[in-house]
From TrEMBL:
One of its GO terms (molecular function) is magnesium ion binding. It is found in: Cytoplasm. The keyword Oxidoreductase does not apply. Keywords: Carbohydrate metabolism, Cytoplasm, Glucose metabolism, Isomerase, Magnesium, Metal-binding, Phosphoprotein. The keyword Metal-binding applies. PROSITE patterns: PGM_PMM (PS00710). It comes from Penicillium malachiteum. It comes from the Eukaryota. This is Phosphoglucomutase.
Length: 598
């Protein structure tokens, strides 16, 4: 077995022995010929980490990157894990999909080979697909696992390998640890690992054609079930940001009788280079500029968008002649209000539990409880919310809706992961209902704020180019005076929760209600004045993210509070413990106020 303590020459030899991809072999050979020891160490010494539901990283040669060999190794480990730990389920097969990124199809084919080698049937998508179709396919086909090759909204040079368990949710602890160990035990490519995918009895290469119809039908039926009357849809502009959403959503809308929309011409077809956007993420500043130009030209006041693999959904609306970008929290509470009204109309609230994560708005809890539903908080990510939803179902409850502030929305009637296609369809149905009531989406949001308090957020990040810098920041925070004094700048700390070390100042035994996660860095503080914030290290990007929320009687009060907390994080923590971290100079809050640093 290859070990991280192996010498660089030994690692080079192992790579050239195992890798049969001409491009990545040449990369390592060229570095070897150039005696580029530092570069070889960076790409060979440390294995790409099997973390947040799988792999994600830059496509390049070496054990630390995404490439054909590391995909083969991950697939062999996963296949062996399934065959060993649940052999009775292996015959149910795995669903394998891929997006339109560079190498996605090839990675998916190599993954399929590993499962076929152990006689595990493969439901293979020959067409590019939205990510939600894989967890839907597991649920629909009762498969034992699923793999989606995608890097979601990452830059063009990245790719990823997302893994789902037999319950249709992303893998979570301790299963991920077992798979990671199995990968380490199956690093050498098996015989025929590199072969082209060859048709056989257990390779179902028509899986996409078989599943896309039921998926679209389920989305349609669910969207219709959330309204008592199907209202005329308002004109809108749609962009998939060069991703796969444009292959599904326009046709889905047409089948629902929705034809008064315009797609952004330069962004509707999949393009792995994402040529018109700096970052193919609708959260990023400027990502929807072309959609806004199209909407202005066409006289439309509503924009809906998906990210490149269509598991996220975003919306923007023209308000007082200016475009208002709804945050993930905005869309989350708007969809939640729509779902609560639908459940209330059918007397189906008593067993309903709404979920959101520790970094999302506290507004959902107020809404759910006030309407007689239940609420539960989870750790960040749909690997938590999907599995919590499945666990709640075992107790007779159901989770009609869950969301996370990063534009992710789950409707378990369709699948147990975030689903930008279903979210878009439900949002359009809700929007039509609001319009029939004389409301825009923005006006509906203000109505909710009037009822539950104005919730202002400031969510952003500091750039942390390596994990050691992130660790340095959190070590500094923990060793500082804050926990002893329960003071944070001018704010009094009411509660301190450390999910990394498993500490919560508000519980009798000082243990948090949520599962602790020593593998990640995450702190949450509750402050006087209705303020809460979380700071955490990202599991997929070189960032330290922060999420600040204030609930105030007015917008101005809430804006002032989140801005003051941000300045305290910056001056008392980041500039003290990690002054080399970089960050932007402008920070927009959720209502459009921009905090500018001097």
């Amino acid at each position: 077995m290859m070990a991280s303590q192996d010498s660089i020459p030994s690692l080079v030899q192992t790579w050239l022995q195992w890798d049969q991809d001409p491009t990545t072999r040449a990369e390592i050979r060229n570095l070897q010929d150039a005696n580029a020891a530092k570069e070889l160490e960076l790409c060979l010494k440390k294995r790409i980490e099997f973390g947040t539901a799988g792999l994600r990283g830059r496509m390049a040669a070496g054990f630390s990157n995404m490439n054909c060999l590391t995909v083969i190794q991950a697939s062999q480990g996963l296949a062996k894990y399934i065959k060993t730990t649940r052999p009775e389920d292996a015959a149910k097969g795995v669903v394998i999909g891929h997006d339109a990124r560079h190498n996605s199809r090839r990675f998916a084919e190599l993954a399929a080979n590993a499962f076929l080698a152990l006689d595990i049937p493969v439901y293979f998508f020959t067409e590019t697909s939205p990510t939600p179709m894989v967890p839907f396919g597991i649920k629909h086909s009762k498969a034992t696992a699923g793999v989606m090759v995608t890097a979601s909204h990452n830059p063009p040079q990245d790719n990823g390998y997302k893994v789902y368990s037999n319950n249709g949710a992303q893998i979570n602890r301790p299963e991920d640890e077992g798979i990671a160990q199995s990968i380490r035990e199956n690093l050498e490519p098996w015989q025929n690992a590199w072969k082209e995918l060859i048709p056989c009895d257990i390779l179902h290469s028509d899986a996409y054609q078989t599943l896309v119809g039921p998926y679209e039908t389920q989305v349609q039926e669910f969207a219709r079930s959330t309204v008592t009357e199907w209202k005329p849809f308002s004109p809108f502009v749609y962009t998939p940001l060069h991703g796969v959403g444009g292959l599904v959503l326009p046709g889905l809308c047409s089948s629902l009788g929705v034809d008064n929309f315009v797609s952004v011409p330069l962004q509707i077809a999949p393009d792995p280079e994402f040529p018109t956007v700096k970052f193919p993420n609708p959260e990023e500043s400027g990502a929807l500029d072309l959609a806004m130009e199209t909407a202005d030209k066409e006289g439309r006041t509503l924009i809906i968008a998906n990210d490149p693999d269509a598991d996220r959904f975003a919306a923007a609306e023209k308000v007082n002649d200016r475009w208002f970008l709804f945050t993930g929290n905005h869309v989350g509470v708007l969809l939640a209000s729509h779902m609560l009204e639908a459940l209330k109309a059918t007397d189906n609230l008593s067993t309903a539990t709404f979920l959101t994560t520790a970094v999302s708005s506290g507004m959902l809890e107020k809404m759910a409880v006030s309407e007689g539903a239940q609420f539960q908080e989870t750790l960040t990510g749909f690997k938590w919310m999907g599995n919590v939803a499945r666990d709640l179902e075992k107790t007779g409850k159901h989770v009609p809706f869950a969301y996370e502030e990063a534009l992710g929305y789950m409707f378990s009637s369709v699948c147990y992961d975030k689903d930008g296609i279903t979210a878009a369809t439900v949002f359009l149905a809700a929007y039509a209902k609001w319009k029939s009531q004389g409301l825009t989406a923005h006006a509906k949001l203000q109505q909710l704020f009037a009822q539950y308090g104005h919730h202002e957020t400031l969510n952003n990040y500091f750039r942390s180019p390596n994990p050691s810098l992130t660790l340095e920041l959190f070590r500094g925070i923990r060793s500082g005076p804050f926990l002893a004094t329960m003071e944070f700048g001018s704010f009094k700390i009411l509660r301190w929760r450390d999910m990394t070390e498993g500490y919560d100042s508000a519980t009798p035994d000082n243990k948090p209600d949520l599962p602790e996660d020593p593998s990640s860095q995450m702190l949450t503080l509750w402050l006087e004045g209705g303020v809460r914030f979380t700071i955490r290290g990202s599991g997929t990007e070189p960032k330290v993210k922060f999420y600040i929320e204030s609930c105030g009687a007015s917008r101005d009060d809430a804006v002032n509070a989140v801005c003051q907390v941000f300045k305290t994080i910056l001056h008392n923590w980041v500039q003290v413990y990690t002054p080399t971290m970089t960050y932007d100079r402008k920070f927009p809050t959720s209502s459009g106020h921009v905090l500018e640093l001097e």
